[in-house]
Amino acid sequence: MLLAGQSVGAEIAHQKQARSLFELTSGGLHPGSISNVPDAPATAFAYDENLGARGHIIFAGEFGYDSAAASGGFVAEWLPSGNPHTGPVSTLVIRESELGTDSPAFRGTRLTHDDQLQFGDRINIRYGGEFLMAGFEGTTSSIRPRGELAYQVSHNWIASATISSHPWQDSDPSSGVLESALANLDAFPTLLVRNNRSVLADDLHEEIAIEHTLSPKASFTAAVFHDHSNDTAVIGRGNETTSDFLQDFYSDAFAYDAGASSSWGARIAYEQKITDLINAAVVYAWAGALVPNIVDNPSESLRDLLRTQNRASLAVRACAQLPHIGTQLTVGYKWIDGQVVSRQDAYGEAMYNVDPYLSVILRQPLPKFIPGHAVAMADFGNLLAQGYVPLQTQDGQVILVPSYRSFRGGVSFQF
Fold first, then answer.
1. Which residue, among 244, 192, 252, 200, has the nearest Cα to 31 in the 3D structure?
2. d(CA 168, CA 152)
3. In what order do the strands lie in the sheet with 396-400?
4. Are 94 and 60 in contact (CB under 8 A)?
5. Which of the two ends of the chain, N or C, has the fewest CB atoms closer than 10 A to its terminal CB?
6. What torsion do the CA atoms of 385, 327, 170, 121 make, to the nearest 10 degrees?
């Protein structure tokens, strides 16, 4: 939620951003989905071109090295104001992945536009939408509008109402303009197959929230929300036997359309900047997720064995920068009360940058004699491999995974 005067810090941070970025990485962080960045070594780049009075345009791309499954993507992002926090943002993303020599390729296009209106010092409206098109054994497309109304009730109270499928692009204040543009390559919804027809996972999130600023360094947010999906993505692995299980080329994981899901939920979050180098957040959520309905006779399909049920969760995230050596460490843990096979409060996870179970992110600046601002990176997801759910169905033995254990390492250069 951004109201008048709240973008000053973001503007200063933007002015200090580098103009170009170059990364060497070991691949993506989302096994099981062919529509995400492949889990294979890749080179990525981003460049900020200043257009003067017309703003900035960011070019970004990533290209994989796997000879059996070439992949690549391109992003063009136009910022007329030069800053995504204070003006419109238009983004075009094109992705293609060859999934072996004898398999069809994945091709995806994502076109988005977001803007905002300010009415006095109290009312801010953000609106936009995205057009999605993906091809794999057929073509599917989707148009997804979204909007947010924020009202400054008093000096330290803000109320808001949101309808969207995911948080706004600038919801992560620690992400620079170049990194944010590059992250668009991994922002496609999960591609699924149902009855030999390609579909995109969808989720409509409706939320009413109120935020209270306790001090310049602490805030508290409470929200009530509703989630609805016609095609809910479930990720797993196993000896599946039908075409509805879309196999990931780079791993033994698959993506599966578990059908419709609808639930109400609530969330409370507390964020605090403990020192100039340490900040933390605690998030409690009561929200719906797909859970297994265990039966003695495994004669039903996987879709029939799953139902939506509310679960409680508690997440803690802490970010710290070590003095002198500059190491940036982010540790997060999300505990979930009981088994789930899909994401619980996925919108809240994206907003507060927490993932199910234990995750660790390391950023280590390298010595200054290396050209540019060089940083070594290591991202660990679900480090303890928790939450795996084995099931026996008429389609075979499967293990469903709400969050795969994953690793992404590499080095980034900014100039």
1. 252
2. 19
3. 245-247, 253-257, 233-238, 396-400, 389-393
4. no
5. C
6. 130
Residue 324 has which token pair?
Answer: 């002198």
pLDDT of residue 297: 57
DSSP 191: E
The CATH architecture to which 8-414 belongs is Beta Barrel (2.40)
Please name which of 382, 335, 342, 378 lies closest in space to residue 358, comparing C-alpha atoms: 382
- CA 158 to each of CA 9, 114, 284, 344: distance values in angstroms, whole numbers, following the listed order: 19, 21, 20, 25
313-325 per-position pLDDT tens digit: 999 999 999 998 8
Please answer whether residues 262 and 227 qualify as being in contact, where contact means their C-beta atoms are separated by less than 8 angstroms: yes
The helix (H) or strand (E) run that includes residue 59 is strand 56-64
- Residue 32 tokens read as 């099981």
Q: What is the mean pLDDT of each run of 10 residues along the chain (415 residues)?
A: 44 57 84 81 92 91 80 93 83 88 85 93 94 90 95 96 87 73 89 90 96 96 97 87 80 89 97 95 97 71 90 97 92 96 94 94 88 89 93 84 90 91
H-only helix segments in 279-387: 346-352
DSSP codes, 230-289: SS-EEEEEE---STTEEE-TTSSEEEEE---EEEEEEEEEEEEEEETTEEEEEEEEEEEE
State the pTM of this model: 0.89
Q: Output the CA torsion 73→365→280→1 (10° steps).
A: -40
